[in-house]
Amino acid sequence: MTALSTKEKLAWYNDFLIFLIIAVLAGCGLVYEYLLSHYAGRILGALESTIYAIIGIMIVAMGIGALLARKITDPFTGFAWLESVIALFGSSSVLLIAFANAYTSILPHIIAQHYDLPGDISPSGGWINTLQNTVTYLPFFFALLLGLAIGMEIPLMARIRATLYQKYLEHNPGDIYGVDYIGAGIGAACWVLFMLKLDIHLSAAFTASANLAIGLLFIYLFYKKIRYLPLLLILHSFIAILLYFIFQYGQNWVYSMEDMLYRDHVIYSLNTPYQHITVTERIIARNKPAEIAFFINGRTQFTSSDEKIYHSMLVYPAMLASARHDNILVIGGGDGLAVREILRWNPKKVTLLDLDKDIIDFFSYPKTYHGDIINQRLLNLNQHSLTDPRVQISIGDAFINVDQLLEENKHFDTIIVDLPDPGHPDLNKLYSSQFYAKLKHLLYADGAMVVQSTSPYHAKNAFLSIGKTLLHAQLSHVQQYHYNVPSFGEWGWSLATKNAPSAKARIQAFTELPISDHWITQGIILAAFEFSQHYFDVLPHIKINRLGSYTIYNYHHKAWKEEQIEY
Q1: I want to staple 208 with a disulfide (CB 3.0 to 4.6 A). Which of 91, 347, 445, 504 is the partner?
Q2: Which long-range contacts (CB under 8 A, 24 or more apart) does 466-469 make?
Q3: For residue 167, what is the DSSP state?
Q4: 306-566, which class in CATH?
Q5: Model confidence pLDDT, tens digit, residues 1-34
Q6: What pTM value is reported for the model?
Q7: 418 is catalytic
Q8: CATH node for 6-93+145-261
Q9: From the candidates 335, 354, 413, 418, which is the catalytic residue?
C-alpha cells in the first residue's frame, strides 16, 4: 500500500472539512425547520397542522432553492454569503415574529390611549385586522426564506468539490447527500434531546452560532476564492454581536414581549418538550395578595382568584357520587390543584397520570430563578399536594399508561379526567370513545367518573360530543353540568357512573355534605345540572368522537375560531 503524497493528504484533509461543513449545516437546517414550525404552532394555536405546513413549505422552498443555485456564478462567494444570511435570519426570525405578534396585539390599545378613547372602545377592523392577520403569516415567510437559502447549499457544495478536483466526480452527489442525511439525523437528535427544553431564542442562537462558525471555517479554507471578503467579515462580526446580545439579553426581550401579550406581568416562562408555560402576576390592591395566572401555550389554565370554583366543581360532585374514596385516579391535573381537593376526602391512594415531568416538578418542588423561589405561591396554592406520600405519579402518555393499569388489574373508586381542552390533535385520542371504554374497565361498579368538558356556551358541539362519546363507551349514566368560572366564563363537566343510580340521584340522596370545602353546597351542585330549554335539541346531530376521527378537535377548533372572529 503506497503512502499518500503531501498533496493527496491536503486534498483528503480539505475534503474531510468540506464533509464536516455539509454535515453541520444539514443539522442546522433541520433544527431551523423544527424551531420555526414548533414556535409557529405555539403562537398560532393548531400545533400539528402548523408544524406540517411549515415543514412542507420549507421542503418545497429547498427544492426551489436547489434550482435557483445554478444562477449563482461563483459557488465559493455565493456559499460564503449564503451561510451569513442563514445565520442572520435563523438567529433573529423567532424574535422578529414574537415582536411583530406582540406589537400588533397591543396596537389597538396604543391607538385608544393616543386618541383618549373610552375604556370600553377598542379600535378594530380595517387595516388593523389586515395587519394582525398579516403577522400570522410571518412564520411561513421565514420558512420560505430559510428554505430557499438552505436548498442552495448542496448544489453549491457539489460545484465547489467539482471545481477543487477540476473534474466531474463520479460519486459527488451520493457522497454529499449521504453526509447531508447523516448530519440532518444528528440535528434531529440534538433537537429532541437538548433543544426542546431550551428557551426558543436560545435554540435559535445556538443553531445560528454553529452556522456562523462553520461559515467562518469555510472562509478560512477558501478565502482566496471569495470576493468582497472585507464586507463578508463585517457581516459576520455584526451577526456575532447580535448573537452575543441574544444570549445575554434574549430572555429579557422574550419576557418583555410576553408582557405585551398578557395583561399582567410575566414572572416566569418555561419551555418543556411538550409545551410552553407562562406564569403571570397581577397586583390587585396593596392589602391583597397578587393574582397568579398559569398559561400553557398562551391559554389560561387557571388563576389563583377563582381556581377554587373550577376544581371544586370538577372534584366534589364525582367524589360525592362515588361509594368509596379509597383509591382515586387523576388523568392530567399536573398542577396538583385537583389532587388538593381530593386529599380533603382522606383517600388511601391517589394515582396521577401526566405527560409532562417538567410541569409536575414545577408544581412539586421549589424552583429558584435569580435567587427567588418563583413558584412558592403555586406550591402554597396546591398545598404541596403532589409531594403527599399518598400520591403516586406516573409520567407518560395517559393513553398508554392506562393500558398498563388494565394489565395490572387496577380498579378505582373515582376517576377524574382533568385534561386541557381538545384544542390540539394529540389530545383528541384522550377524548375518544376507546379511551373512555378503557377508563370504564378501571372504574369500580359503584364508582363515578368526571371529565373536564370545555365550555357549553362557547364550544357547545364539543361539550355535547364529550357527553355523547362517554355514553357510547357504555357507561350507564352520563350527565353534564356547568358553572361560571370568571376566568373562563361558562364552563362544563361530564359526570358518569358505571351502574345505576345516576350521579345526580346519588347526590340528591345526601341530607348533608360529608366534607366541607368552604365554598360548594349541595344546592350549587344540583342546580349546575340544569340547562336552558331546548339546549340538548341538537344532540341527535352531534357526532361521537372515535379514535382518529378528530371530531372533538374539529368541533372545538371551529367554535373558538368563530368566537375570535366575532370579537
Answers
A1: 91
A2: 466/431, 466/494, 466/545, 466/552, 467/494, 468/539, 468/542, 468/543, 468/544, 469/431, 469/432, 469/433, 469/436, 469/544, 469/545, 469/552
A3: S
A4: alpha beta
A5: 455 566 666 667 777 888 899 999 899 988 888 8
A6: 0.73
A7: yes
A8: 1.20.1250
A9: 418
